[in-house]
Amino acid sequence: MTQHIEIHHVTRIEGHGSIVLDMDEGAVKKIAWQVPEAPRFFEAMVLGKSWKDMQTIVSRICGICSISHSLACVKGVEAALGLEVTKQTSRLRRLAHYSELMQSHVLHVGYLVAPDLLGQPSVVPLTKTHPELVGLVVGLHKLANRWSDLITGRTTHPITLQPGRMTHLPTAGDLVQLQHDLQASREGVWRLVDAVGGLLDRLPDFERETEYVALVDGFDYALYDGEVGSSDAPKALPVARFEEVCNEYVAKDSTAKWTRWHRDAYAVGARARYNLSGMRLSPLGRKVADAAGLEAHKHNPYYNTVAQLAEIGHLLDETQVLIDKILAAGLKPERGEPQPHAGEGVGSVEAPRGILFHRYAFDAKGRCEAANLVIPTNQNHGNLQRDMEALVPTIMDRPESEIALLLEMLVRSYDPCVSCSTHFLDVRFVGRGAGHGEGA
Amino acid sequence: MMKPRVAIFDFAGCEGCQLQIVNLEDELLSLLDVVDVVEWREGISEKSPEFDIALVEGAITRPQDVRRLEQIRARAKVLVALGACASHGGVNKLRQRLDLAAAKRIVYGDAASEPFLRSGPVQAIDEVVSVDVRIEGCPIDRQEFKNIMRTLVLGGEPHLPNFPVCVECKRAGNVCRYERGEICLGPVTRGGCGARCPSFGMWCFGCRGSVDEPNIHAARAVMERYGRTVQELEERLALFGSR
Q1: In chain A, what residues touch B116 (CB-CB under 8 Å)?
Q2: Final residue of a structural domain among B153, B175, B200
Q3: Is residue B216 domain-shared with residue B191, that is, in the same domain?
C-alpha cells in the first residue's frame, strides 16, 4: 500500500531539517533525518583571505554561535601562527564564551522547549498563560545579551575577539556591575529550574546509551579549553588530532556532513559534557542537576535541555570567580597586532550545542591555504538518526500527530543549530499503513 | 484599521538578523501589538496568500531559491531586504571568486557531484527581484530595525543614512584606523551603525554597503596619504559583497 502523507508543523529549531518516515503495514521501513539547508562553502570562502579576516568571515557561519566560532577561529589562527595570549585575554574570552552559552541555553530552554512542555505552539501564547515564566526568560536572555555586548562589542558577530589580543577592554566598573547583575539573577534561575523541573514528567521516557564526546581537562567542567574526551575511550586526544575523532562523511540527501568515531555515531552538547564532566559542575550547577534528576536520565536525549539548565547554574558560579580573578589582576592594555608567518593549527571550544573544531593553514604572507571546520550539529546528525530508529518502533502505534510531536521534540532536544530562532520542520509520513491517526 | 501582515523568510545566511528581532525581547512583544506575523519561516505555504510586508534574510544561491523568492515578491506589497546577505550577498559572495565545482570539491570531496548540492551563483535579492527597502548591517542593528518597522507600519518611507561611517567615528572620538596603519572602509561605507567596529578597536568591514555616490576621490586621497593601494581597499570591500 502506498501512501503519501505530509504533515507540516511550525516548530522551533534553529536551521532547516526534515524527517521522512516510511512505514509499511505497521513496520518501519525507513526513517531519515535530512538537512536540506542551502550549502554555503565556508571552507572555500576563506581561501586566499588574510588571517586578519578569518574571524570576520567564519563568525558568519552561525548567528547564534558566532562567539564560539570566533573563539575556535582565533585559537586556531594563534596555533597556526605560533601566537601566545595573555591570561587577561584568555579570561576575557572565557567571559565572552560564557555569555554566549548563557544566551543560547536560555533561548533554547525558555523560547524553544518550554512551549512543548506547556503544550503550546510557541512562546507567544505563554505571554498570556505563563507571564511570570516568560518574564524570567526574557530577563535572563537580556542579561546574557548585554553581557556579550559588553565584552565583544555586539550580541551577534563579536568585534573584539581577534588573534593575539582583545581589541577593546571593558572597564572594571562594567565588570563589577555585571557581577552584581548576575548575582541578582540567581534567584530567577532557581525559579526557572522550579518551573521547568515541575514539567519534566512530560518528557518522553526514552533511554539510549551512546558514545559521548566533549572537551575534557581533568580539573574543570571543560568549556573553553581541553582535549577531546570520549565515553568510549580511556584516553583523551589532543584537539590537533580532531580529524581522527570526526571521520566526516557525506550522508545521502544532506548538505551537512556527518561524523562517527568508536561507534557508528556519537553525541555532543550539554548532555555529552555532563556525561563526561558532570562530577565537576559548580555547586549551583550540581544543585540544579540534582533537583531535576539529571543523573538518572543522562542517557535520555530529551534531557539535553536539563543538562543545559544545569550549565546555566554552573555558568553563574564560574563567572563570579572569573570576574574576581580579572578584577584582582587589574585590567591592563592589550599588546599590539601580531605578525604573520606560515603555519597550521587547530582551535576548539565547546559551543552551546557541543564541541567545535576549526583547522587553518596559512602561507608565509598569512593567506589561508586550507580550512576544515567541523560544527557540533553535524556531529549530532548520526546520533539523532540512531535515536529516531530506536524511538519510532516504541511509539508507532500512537496517532500520527503524537509521533510527529515526539520526533520534533527529539530534534529540538539536540538544539540543532545551523542558525537561530523559530523554524519550520517538515515531518513527512510516507507509505504508512492505514488505521493510524489522521493518515488517510 | 487592520494590522499590517508581516512575513519573515530566510535564504542562505546565518539567521543572525532574525535573531536580532528575537533579541528585541519585550520590545518585540510591543511590535506584535501593531503587526500580525502571518509567516515566520514556514516556507511557502498556502496559509497566507499575501502579506503587506515581507522581510527577507539571506542570499540567493540555488535555482529553487530564485523561484521561491519570486513567489514571495508576488505576494508581498513591500519587500524588505534584511541585512548584508540579502542586501549585498554578504560573506557568501566570497565564494564567487572561486569556480563553483572547485568550491564543492574543497568542501564535499568525492560527494561534490551529489544532486542535492546543486548550487548556483550567489546573488543579493535585488539581483533577482525588485526590493523596496533595505535594512543594512551584519547583523542588522536592533534599534534601526525597530525604527524602520515603525515607519513602515505608519505608512511612511524609510530612508537610509547617506553619510559615511567616518562621520560617526569622528563624533565618537576614535583615533583614525589609518593612523594605526590599517585599511578601514569607513570613508565609503554607509553610516548609521554608530561606528561600532572602530569604537571596539577594529577597522570598518563595510558590512552596510557603500553610501550613494561614494566620494572615490577623497577615498583615493586617503589611500595615497597613508601609502595604501586601491587594490587593498577593494579586497576589503569584497568581504561583505559590496559592489
Answers
A1: 36, 253-255
A2: B153
A3: yes
Strands A27-34 and A17-24: antiparallel
Residue B92 belongs to a domain: yes
The CATH number of the domain holding residue B93 is: 3.40.50.700
- When divided into structural domains, chain B yields a total of 2
pLDDT at B126: 95
Query: Within a domain: residue B160?
Result: no
Asked if residue B227 belongs to a domain, the reply is yes
**pLDDT per position as a tens digit, A159-180:** 999 999 999 999 999 999 999 9
**Residues B216, B140 share a domain:** no
Position B159 in a domain: no
Q: Which of B107, B184, B232 to mutate to test the interface with A (most CBs of A within 10 A)?
A: B107
Q: How far apart are CA A411 and CA A413, in angstroms?
A: 5
Verify whether the Cβ–Cβ distance A63 to B139 is below 8 Å.
yes
What is the structure's pLDDT at B133? 97
Residue B198: closest CA among chain A residues belongs to which residue?
A159
pTM: 0.92
Q: Which residues pair with A161 in a beta bridge?
A: A166
Instruction: Please provide the DSSP assignment of B38-77 as one string.
Output: EEES--S-TT-S-EEEEEEESBB-SHHHHHHHHHHHHHEE
| CB contact A428 to B (< 8 Å) | no
Cα–Cα distance for residue pair A141/A146, rounded to 1 Å: 9
How far, in Å, are A151, A244, A335, B194 from residue A170 at the CA level? 6, 39, 15, 18
On whether both B119 and B97 belong to a single domain, the answer is yes
Mean of pLDDT over chain B: 87
At residue B79 the predicted structure's pLDDT band, cuts being 50, 70 and 90, is: very high
- More confident: B104 or A141: A141
Range of the domain at B94: 5-153
Half-sphere exposure of B21 (CA within 13 A, CB side): 22
Identify whether residues B85 and B205 lie together within a single domain: no
pLDDT for A99 beyond 90: yes
Burial class (CB in 10 A: 0-12, 13-18, 19+), A108: buried
Which tens digit of pLDDT belongs to each residue from A36-47? Answer: 666 678 888 899
**Closest residue to A424, CB basis, from B42, B90, B95:** B42
What pLDDT, in 10s, does the model give residues A1-27?
Answer: 333 333 333 344 555 677 878 777 667
Residues B83 and B201 in one domain: no
Q: Do the Cβ atoms of A107 and B22 come within 8 Å? A: yes
A43 reaches B (C-beta below 8 A): yes
B31 and B94 in a single domain? The answer is yes
Can you tell me the ipTM of this complex?
Answer: 0.92
**Interface probe, candidates B6, B14, B104, chain A, greatest A C-beta count within 10 A:** B14
Residue found by looking up cell 513527512 in the block:
A428
Whether residues A156 and B109 touch (CB distance < 8 A) is answered with: no
Touching check for B44 and chain A: CB below 8 Å? Answer: no
Which of B120, B153, B186 is where one domain is finished?
B153
Q: How many CB pairs under 8 A join A and B?
A: 159
Contact B172/A at CB under 8 A: no
Residue of A nearest to B103 (CA): A44
pLDDT at residue B108 tops 90:
no
Residue with the larger pLDDT of the pair A426 and A89: A89
Q: Are residues B37 and B130 in the same domain?
A: yes
Based on the domain organization, do B207 and B123 belong to the same domain? no
Report the alpha-carbon distance of residue B13 to residue B36 in Å, rounded.
Answer: 24
For residue range A344-358, what is the model confidence (pLDDT) as tens digits? 999 999 999 999 999
